[in-house]
Amino acid sequence: MPHIRSQKYAQRALGLIQRVKEKNEKVKEYRTLALNFPTMILQSGLAQAIGFLQAKGKEEHLLLLAHIAELLEENENSLHKKILEADLPHYQLLTRQAIEAASGLKRYTQALLPKPKDEQGGQS
After folding, report:
1. Statement: the pTM of the whole predicted model exceeds 0.70
2. Which Gene Ontology terms of cellular component type are present (predicted)?
């Protein structure tokens, strides 16, 4: 039985987030980015959101970019170019797919990468 796209993203996102947790590097920074990225796509658009990750160029930004590209089965180096060159229907499809992929990452980030101790008990 074929999986729906969101199930496929969720299964693969779980493995990606487990690797982030195991490596335990830049978890706090990655967590913040992953939790906010679906909203960033909605507010700024897919091209700008992906461009932001590339432009920042920090480890956690590039890791999230690599995860999004992997979930979309795209090359992280050519993803932004593909988005920029897409016609409107394809851009809309890529946006929907990216939001679903980013939402999968967000869900597992919330579950597996807990808030750092210095943030618990404060505002959410």
Report:
1. yes
2. cytoplasm
